[in-house]
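Design review, sub-item: ligand-bound model
Attendees: FS, YL, KQ
YL presented the inputs for the adenosine monophosphate complex:
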Amino acid sequence: MWRLVVLGPPGSGKSTQADQLCDQLGLAHLSTGELLRDEVARGTPVGLEAKEYMNKGLLVPANLVNHMVWVKLAAMGDRGFILDGYPRNINQADSLDATLLDLAMRLDAVVLVDIPEETAVERLGARLMCQDCRAIHRESALPAGAMTCPSCGGALIKRDDDKPEVIRERFRVYYSSIMPVLERFRGQGLLLEVDGRGMPDEVYQRLTSALVDKTGKVFA
Ligand code: AMP
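KQ shared the predicted structure:
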């Protein structure tokens, strides 16, 4: 059983890595970005409030996100999980500490999938998301002009927050808030830094062997 956090700048591919890890290890994937997009798509009160911030590339207010995570973790029981994209600032890290204490849970590791800013801007500018299954596709990996999802046939769209001006703002926000969070996890001996450049499979190899080295756990 694994309890992990996966962090990384926008475009680092952290969610793709988290997906693959969840499939292989049978873990629940708790992506705060995905949970928030779901609230927005369903037009819930949380979604209506969150949308204003997300469309500008800003962090959604802490109370909304912290509560959402508490509810999800409390329902997890003995099932392992990956928290993807949370905590993003020191307030959220404090809240996560309190939640884990409350639920008598411990993290095994915090994985940082890191890439340089130029790589991220390039990747994000060239990706499309399926409106139905939410899969992310690189434009270069699709037939020229393709507008439908190769997995499910849904319409491909550009995420509102993958527009160039919003990408830049997401970067600014990410770096200004994540540093103290990384310091905290480094101090706790939990942080594992993985180079996120290259193809997803190469990154996954790097990530899984680093995880085994760090935790000494069997990976199956
Ligand atoms: P992501 O899918 O992780 O890139 O997140 C997309 C957007 O959702 C972010 O730009 C934020 O607006 C919002 N978001 C996701 N996770 C969080 C979080 N932990 N705290 C606040 N806002 C978040």
